[in-house]
Amino acid sequence: MSSRIVNFPEQELLEKANRFLPGGSNGNTIYQGLIIKEGKGSRVWDVSGNEYIDHSLGSGPMILGHAHPEVVEAVTERVAQGTTFFGLNEPTILLAEEIVKAVPCADRVRFTSTGTEATFHAMRVARAHRRRDKVLKFEGGYHGMNDYALMSMAPTDPGEFPSAIPDSIGIPAAIGNEVFIAPFNDIETTTNIIEQHHDELGGVIVEPLQRVIPPVPGFLKGLREVTREYGIPLIFDEVVTGFRFAYGGAQEYYGVVPDICAMGKAVSGGYPLSVIAGREEIMSHFGGDQDHPYGRVLQEGTLNGNAVAAVAGLATLKVLKREGTYVNLFRIGGMIKEGFERILMDAEIPAQVIGEPPMFDILFTNQVIRDYRDSLRCGAGKNARLVELLRERGIYKNDAKFYVSTAHDERDVEEVLVAFESVVEAL
């Protein structure tokens, strides 16, 4: 493949980015010297005209691919009628109805704009319901950028469980005292922590698939049982897995139903919308019902349930609900995943492809990966080189995952595997 072309307009924009944006980026990716101009289906183009098969998908939201015609039509029609009203609108109500029909734990729904807000408010309403202040999360679990989430999300020097380590400066030290940390996929240690601290816990939050690490058999079921035993709300962070692994999300896919879930990414076709959903007795705290004499949980936001994102969500879910959608999504993702495994095996490179067909990544180790600490043994430098080499060959992904959309097809699979084979030779 020929070298990537960089035209003067792109170089000029990159210079402006370095001048006006901290680190020359929007904070979402490591600076890559790349400016995306447009996307269509499974592909994106940079401002110099270079074409890429996109497996970043906006870090996940574009599950239908870019500019899906039905989503574009719905949004275009809606924009002419107004964007947001700080009040109820018909699309928001209809989208809430569809989510309640789809998601096992959802009796009621509240909307916000980002995954960070959704997980933050999910934890808040759990604490309000339980009338306890502390939250248990799992080491390596990613729940956005709120202060509670940024505890032991990516510690370089992990401490003793259940102590929490802040991932960013600027987080009040007191937050560390409000979060317990447990090891993912270790139900024995997790149960011990919950049993010792159950009277302090307002909730337990977990990614049902942590980044790309699948739950071992029995882990989610065991977590559901111990939280139910002590009356502690269990929160599934389905910002990534919701409507991606199944129409009912990871809770349908894995067969374990939490009390509350946070969703985003795929639910609105890339428009700013996220969801807190859960059991009626918990979600009613948001409404300030008279049954809750301790007051209501505040959760306001200017763009909560804005009409543009809501119609995008309705159009997206309409497509996802069609017969065969998930079968094909898993088929295409499985072809890529299995192709990667074959190429790595033939090259005798110690690596594994971990995750589920709609979302996975390559970890450069042949050791079993069950939790965050296992993942620290993988070659981070080699993974960064993999991303760079793929981009040079017209494959665009972020640092953490390969996302697959319903727009990817057999031609994309063939091109991706040819590029990957060339990358493996370079590695």
Give the topology.
Layout: H1 8-20, E1 36-40, E2 43-46, E3 51-54, H2 69-79, H3 90-102, E4 108-112, H4 115-130, E5 134-138, E6 179-182, H5 187-197, E7 201-206, H6 219-229, E8 234-238, H7 250-254, E9 260-263, E10 274-278, H8 280-283, H9 307-320, H10 325-346, E11 352-356, E12 359-363, H11 372-375, H12 380-392, E13 395-396, E14 402-403, H13 410-426
Parallel strand pairs: 3-13, 5-6, 5-7, 7-8, 8-9
Antiparallel strand pairs: 1-2, 2-3, 4-10, 9-10, 11-12, 12-14
Helix pairs in contact: 2-9, 3-9, 5-6, 10-13
β content, as a range? 5-15%
Largest sheet: 7 strands, mixed
Order of helices and strands: HEEEHHEHEEHEHEHEEHHHEEHHEEH
Low-confidence stretches: none
Radius of gyration: 22 Å
Rounded mean pLDDT score:
93
Shape from CA axes? globular
* E-strand count: 14
Q: Record the strand order, biggest sheet.
A: 4-10-9-8-7-5-6
Structural class: alpha/beta
Total number of helical segments? 13
Q: What can you see in these coordinates?
A:
With 427 residues, the protein is α/β, with parallel strands linked by helices. Helix content is 36%, strand content 14%. The protein contains 13 helices and 14 strands. The chain has helices spanning 8-20, 69-79, 90-102, 115-130, 187-197, 219-229, 250-254, 280-283, 307-320, 325-346, 372-375, 380-392, 410-426, and strands at 36-40, 43-46, 51-54, 108-112, 134-138, 179-182, 201-206, 234-238, 260-263, 274-278, 352-356, 359-363, 395-396, 402-403. A seven-stranded mixed sheet has the order 4-10-9-8-7-5-6, with helices on both faces. A four-stranded mixed sheet has the order 1-2-3-13. Strand 1 and strand 2 (43-46) form a beta hairpin. The chain is globular.
